[in-house]
Amino acid sequence: MAGNTFGTLFTVTTSGESHGPGLTAIIDGCPPGIELTTADLQAELDRRKPGQSRYTTARREADEVEILSGVFEGKTTGTPIALLIRNTDQRSRDYSNIKDLYRPGHADYTYDQKYGVRDYRGGGRASARETAMRVAAGAIARKYLAKQGIRIQAGMTQMGTIIAEQYDFAAAQNNAFFFTDSSKLDQLDASIRELLKAGDSVGARIRVVASGVPAGLGEPVFDRLDADIAKALMSINAVKAVSMGDGFDVAAQRGSTHRDAMTPTGFSSNHAGGVLGGISSGQELIADLALKPTSSITIPGNTINRAGEAQQVSTKGRHDPCVGIRAVPIAEAMVALVLMDHLLRQRAQNAEVQPIGYQIP
Amino acid sequence: MAGNTFGTLFTVTTSGESHGPGLTAIIDGCPPGIELTTADLQAELDRRKPGQSRYTTARREADEVEILSGVFEGKTTGTPIALLIRNTDQRSRDYSNIKDLYRPGHADYTYDQKYGVRDYRGGGRASARETAMRVAAGAIARKYLAKQGIRIQAGMTQMGTIIAEQYDFAAAQNNAFFFTDSSKLDQLDASIRELLKAGDSVGARIRVVASGVPAGLGEPVFDRLDADIAKALMSINAVKAVSMGDGFDVAAQRGSTHRDAMTPTGFSSNHAGGVLGGISSGQELIADLALKPTSSITIPGNTINRAGEAQQVSTKGRHDPCVGIRAVPIAEAMVALVLMDHLLRQRAQNAEVQPIGYQIP
Amino acid sequence: MAGNTFGTLFTVTTSGESHGPGLTAIIDGCPPGIELTTADLQAELDRRKPGQSRYTTARREADEVEILSGVFEGKTTGTPIALLIRNTDQRSRDYSNIKDLYRPGHADYTYDQKYGVRDYRGGGRASARETAMRVAAGAIARKYLAKQGIRIQAGMTQMGTIIAEQYDFAAAQNNAFFFTDSSKLDQLDASIRELLKAGDSVGARIRVVASGVPAGLGEPVFDRLDADIAKALMSINAVKAVSMGDGFDVAAQRGSTHRDAMTPTGFSSNHAGGVLGGISSGQELIADLALKPTSSITIPGNTINRAGEAQQVSTKGRHDPCVGIRAVPIAEAMVALVLMDHLLRQRAQNAEVQPIGYQIP
Amino acid sequence: MAGNTFGTLFTVTTSGESHGPGLTAIIDGCPPGIELTTADLQAELDRRKPGQSRYTTARREADEVEILSGVFEGKTTGTPIALLIRNTDQRSRDYSNIKDLYRPGHADYTYDQKYGVRDYRGGGRASARETAMRVAAGAIARKYLAKQGIRIQAGMTQMGTIIAEQYDFAAAQNNAFFFTDSSKLDQLDASIRELLKAGDSVGARIRVVASGVPAGLGEPVFDRLDADIAKALMSINAVKAVSMGDGFDVAAQRGSTHRDAMTPTGFSSNHAGGVLGGISSGQELIADLALKPTSSITIPGNTINRAGEAQQVSTKGRHDPCVGIRAVPIAEAMVALVLMDHLLRQRAQNAEVQPIGYQIP
Fold first, then answer.
1. Using an 8 Å Cβ cutoff, are C135 and C142 in contact?
2. Using the beta-carbon criterion (under 8 Å), do D33 and A351 form an inter-chain contact?
3. Number of C-alpha atoms within 13 angstroms, CB side, residue C162?
4. Which of A109, A319, B206, D345 has its CA 20 to 30 A from that of B151?
5. Contacts of B252 in chain A (CB under 8 A)
């Protein structure tokens, strides 16, 4: 319980259901003096917003965010920042068909087992709609991190069987798939068309890269930087796998290959993905994640209802054929929240540390 | 900072360096009335203990655990349980050669960047020696979980390029590799011999399976069961990747394949790995993790010293050619700690919940 | 930092400044199935609301609360409950006179020393206006506690030199002072008139009593029930002292007097105030608190400005001559939050405890 | 549950029963580079140690502390510091007489109601013996705070009806009562003799003063500095009341008297006790606390046993006639822990704050 707060010093507490009155977040522990307007938040929210292209759900949400506290005369004051996004596109459709139905692959069944009750409209709290607030909170963190020279970028590197051969994160910002390999855009487009026709969906793989991260962030032995990143990314809807650096490939590697040699002019490689012993090394942080295909598809599937009886289900409404697309800004936001929190934690304990005097470039 | 406590209600706080006086843990929030003796802990500790076979480090540690509090007349009292393991095999060797050297792939450099100082003997706090206390604490959790019908088993499923074709967790308990495929034991033996000869090391992949987990555990949206498992496993030394169910393979799957159909007599498949929406579904929990090959190898490598000068390093001492072997009981312990914590969390908030009356078998 | 969350399992996170857009709270960890409407919250808010009598500030705030999430079809769902109260009476007065002035007895100076900046309008975050959200959150807790037979009442027992000789908490609900001794109402009225004339203010003492609290709540050695109550009450604006049972009088007592004898039919006395060893005994919980007189008075006082220069200050605006009056429902709310949290904590760890079979009546 | 950790960034987790194998503490989040030896801890422990004078319990405990981790070559390393004190004077007396008896004024009954079981030997976890670890942990904090110019002193200001007329904290260090008024020592001595003869005990009042505290510590609205001090002090065994500055006297004060005027050369008074709006003002922090008389007295009293039957009880063993005496170093330690934690918290969020450029002297 009380699982809706993320972070230790820079904390983000969120609330809100898919079809309730609105989404709320309180960000506590934000340093004072950061210039912040709704426009800063809106820019990030718009990247995640549904209905941006024909590749995502047709749900129309303005996702207009309001700052309710913690900002005065355009700057943060150090007091908690409350954010509000009203839900606008709550079609008054009839949900009675899924009220007592447990859609396979969804959280309907587990929410009922946990709480004995659920807001069944549009997935309620289990809907990815809540991630809007992660993106808004992440935007605040990113604004602060940017001033420290820390930059976070993500891109999709796989959608179904289409795998990126290039990791161009700048290019990823310029296509509707956030795909890092522009040469694959036609294939992606064709794939989505085929999926929409088939009434099916597909999974995805995303890479997040953070550059400019100073060495020294992370709090072993449990609150390691990579452990907190793993939690942050795995907490995103539909994510089933998380890795750092070479990830699962390390199982087949030898120590002589994996260990990244250090030289006065830099690391020779980055198999570790920027973390050693749970602490940032100053190299690029590299994290990968995989998202399952959404279970909201029109192809009928077998399931049960609340009474435990066999049923068939087919999701008619609006849905993303690949939820991985809109997850790109969410993944960036979650990594930003982790870095922000660890930056403050490192500063608290080790403010007086005598640095060794240099950092490997 | 203060990153050495794991859990919210069932908390484990650990301390101790590889070559300091000893390892300590305080387990707080343990339910009263559990029968507990040092023998219960020792049994699990012995599985992780170094020097058990020719496949692991030759360091000899009795790893004898003492219970200092929280147990009275053979039962837990609900007050904190303190555990102590004295370090015994601290060879008074000369560490001056690594005092100012940053071994590649190790945490030497990052600890110095973070704290400005480190206990360089045997890796200090960054040594996997601290995981002994995770195993001891996990043994308490497992004892309680067993009474609830929850059983946690793990096994190695890949070592280097040798990949298990069978997932026999019972068999895994009976070989020195904890390997789930007994038909590969000769290959594994040959591989370790070759590695020791070459002075190299190799990575590994481990699977953890928990059965008997009731539906309803996990606290969305951030403290999801899978998110906490991801953090728990990623916090183990050398782990670089974590996944649930089909893991990274979901990127290539379609929704019609991935979603596990539900029927009155059970789920038709388990692509999800036992978690839906961050909450346990009652299916088997399936988590995979990958460990990098240890960087402590005799093959010389390039690195720098504290002064930033280029150096060569070759680790002579005792080391595990595959740290993944001894990580099997550690992974089990970490999953046990997560389940224990979430069992108590679920009970706190939802004690009065009207269950839906059945659980899919 | 991140000091705006109260509680461990039943958590309340608040935000909002006196003259910002509004006040927000997110209550996380609330059990599902509680019937809850805005009317439940409004009833408690109205007790705290300014402008209710001539004894409190003339500021007019509707204090209309909106539930933004966590409630579905009239019942809590177990997901976070977000509350919003818009500030309506933000007179567009000119605050330039206090912008750079540090009012004595106020938090102006300390907020600037802490954050380097502050929202100076009406005290900003330091205003007691934030306590509206404590009352709203407390109303949710009280609703749940009432179902468990736990009832929390408070009353003012001293205002300035006027001291209650009766502790009639029912009567306290029926006068504008929440005073427990109705025979003093004329004196209180006369005192307030005199204070308003003199442009001064006065302190107060409040007693909170909780009945029906089961034995066993409290988590020694640090999170004792009385320790958490002490924190809860001391965190209310203007509170300078907190005590349990006989409070400071115990310093002069002897053990033979203080210890409350136990008999099969009940405790013989309640010097302890319902807590032994940090755990509730089943007796009435009795807590006292004292609030300082507000520093917002028209009598001029010496102070400094941001430049460190000597200044005179006189607070003209609307103010409560005795902030203790409106603190009565706030104190009740804070004790409710503590009890709610500890009820859930006790349930988590000790659900299976074999009770000793009876509770001293 | 899990109530045995104090602090947010500088955390202290303790364990141990009165007559178990020993007491343990893990201090996490300690800055690196602090010179620390067991002698630093022992000096403080010796002040609290039983058997120091004829005024305290005759129990003989060496209270020899061992540092098990976190210190290397005489300095803290930033990793968790584990401390161990073995219990030595565990007379193998027969406890069968109190095994099933609930001593009035003690936690016997409440522990059994909470946990269903208790270690009844010498009070188990509820014994003040656990406070030894608070003192040891506090000694680490005090060492660090001293380097920042922060000094914490306490003294007894009342024992029974004997009330100090002087507040000489230096003098308090030089008498066995830690009494701040040396002129009362003969009265105190006579009082203790009389109490021992009568087989009774007496309460006490203690004042803690911290000087050199910078302005800006405290995290409103819940984690105020004074709120955390209130919790810290109320968590000490036998404490029933806590106050800041003028404490309960503020109820009778007027705003024109209470508010401390500020001038360029300093505050004109310190009614507030060094805290405004939950944040330190730079003035001396002044906190008072009251401890009840111990219930362990030889005068027989009425109570019940586990079966709920009426019984008489008379505590024969060794006991302190005034537990307030030895609480003086404990109160200092708890205030040190709060200040240490808040110093780190302030540093985390507000490291870059532009100070207003001066602090009122």
1. no
2. no
3. 21
4. A109
5. 158, 160-161, 202-203
Chain D residues 313-352 with CB within 8 Å of chain B = 344
Mean pLDDT per 10-residue interval, chain B, length 361 residues: 92 97 98 96 89 72 92 97 90 75 96 94 94 98 97 98 98 95 97 95 98 97 98 98 98 97 96 98 98 94 94 82 95 98 93 80 83
The answer for residues whose C-beta is within 8 angstroms of residue A255's C-beta and 6 or more apart is: B105, B200, B201, B202, B292, B293, B294, B295, B296, B297, B299
Query: Rounded to the nearest 5 degrees, what angle is found at the Cα of C183, between the Cα atoms of C177 and C188?
Result: 40
The one-letter amino acid code at B315 reads T
pLDDT for residue B358: 87
Contact D219, C2 (CB under 8 A): yes
CA distance C68 to A21: 5
Helix axes of A327-350 and A131-147: crossing angle, nearest 10 degrees: 50
Any chain B CB within 8 A of the CB of D2?
A: yes
The CA distance from D25 to D333, in Å, is: 14
Which helix (H) or strand (E) element contains residue C331? helix C327-350
Q: Which one, of C3, C291, C301, C247, lies nearest residue D272 by Cα?
A: C291
Q: What phi, psi does A310 have (nearest 5°)? A: -65, 135
pLDDT digits (tens, 9 = 90+) for D128-172: 999 999 999 999 999 999 999 999 999 999 999 999 999 999 999
For C244, nearest residue in chain D (alpha carbons)? D240
Q: Does D356 touch chain A (CB under 8 A)?
A: no
Does the pLDDT of residue A54 top 80, yes or no? no
What are the tokens at C336? 């409710």
| Alpha-carbon distances, residue C247 vs C154, C231, C271, D239 (angstroms) | 17, 15, 9, 9
B118 touches chain A (CB under 8 A): no
Read off the tokens for C62.
């509707």
As given in the structure block, the two tokens for residue D136 are: 């040891």
Domains with residue ranges and CATH for chain A: 5-350 (3.60.150.10)
Instruction: Give the long-range contacts of residues B48-52, CB within 8 A, separation 24 or more.
Output: B48/B131, B48/B132, B48/B135, B48/B326, B48/B329, B48/B330, B49/B132, B50/B318, B50/B320, B50/B326, B52/B176
pLDDT for residue B318: 65
Distance from CA of A16 to the nearest CA of C (A): 5
Nearest to D221 by CA among B307, A19, C128, B299: C128
Q: Note if the bond before B335 is cis, omega within 30 degrees.
A: no
Statement: residue D317 has pLDDT above 70: no
Q: What is the average pLDDT across A305-309?
A: 94
Amino acid A359: pLDDT: 87
What predicted TM-score, i.e. pTM, was given to this entire model? Answer: 0.97
8 Å CB contact between B88 and B139: no
What are the tens digits of pLDDT across the range A24-44? 999 999 999 999 999 999 999
Nearest chain D CA: its distance from C20 CA (Å) = 16
- In the sheet with D101-102, reading across from the earlier edge strand, the strands are D101-102, D301-305, D310-313
* Sign of the alpha-carbon dihedral angle for B189, B194, B196, B197: positive
For residue A158, give the H/E element and its range: strand A151-159
D117-152: b (≥16 Cβ within 10 Å) or e: bbbbbbbbbbbbbbbbbbbbbbbbbbbbbeeeebbb
Q: Label residues B317-353 b or e (16+ Cβ within 10 Å = b).
A: ebbbbbbbbbbbbbbbbbbbbbbbbbbbbbbbbbeeb
Strand order in the sheet with B22-28: B5-6, B11-15, B22-28, B81-86, B65-67
B80 vs D124: CB contact, 8 Å cut-off?
no
Which residues of chain D have a CB within 8 Å of the CB of C249?
290
Q: Does the model's ipTM exceed the 0.90 cut? A: yes
For residues A114 and B280, give the distance between their C-alpha atoms in angstroms, rounded to a whole number. 9
